[in-house]
Structures are given as structure tokens and as C-alpha cells.
Amino acid sequence: MAEYGAKSRKxxxxxxxxxxxxxxxxxxxxxxxxxxIMRWKADFGWTWKSKLTDxxxxxxxxxxxxxxxxxxxxxxxxWGYRCLTGPNNVPREI
Length: 94
Fold this sequence. Notes:
The protein has 3 helices and no strands. It is mainly alpha-helical and 94 residues long.
């Protein structure tokens, strides 16, 4: 069984155990941040994760909107790499 995903008991966004694959708790990644990550993924395709980790390190978000820059930085500060598992388990569409 996969560690994250529909059959898992871990949230695909925050990694919380025992809450299901979209736990929705206050500690989970909020929907606006999820949407910003998914837009980043749509813009950069299969290299999205490495481009985002580079952006987190450099502060250069390569043409993202100012709002998305803020949301992506919040994702880094609050959840780090844990929140990058979620987009692998959702459809390509936002």
C-alpha cells in the first residue's frame, strides 16, 4: 500500500496520520496554498518540484503572481517538503 493516497490513512498534504487522505484539519495546508502549488505544477510540468525547491532556496519564483509567491513561501515556512507529496496524488486539473 502506498504511504500517501486514497487508500492511505495519511493526509496527502500535511502527512497527518489517521485523518484520511485530505484531513482538512486546521493544521493542514489551506486550500489557497494547495491551489498555488497546483498552479506551479501546471506551469512547470514534470520539473515542478525541483523548480519549486530552487525557488524556495533563492526567493525567485520565476514569473509567479505576487499572491502565489506569498502562498508558496508560506507553504515552505509552515510545511516544507511534506506539502509537496499532495500534488502527486491529485489530477492535473486545478
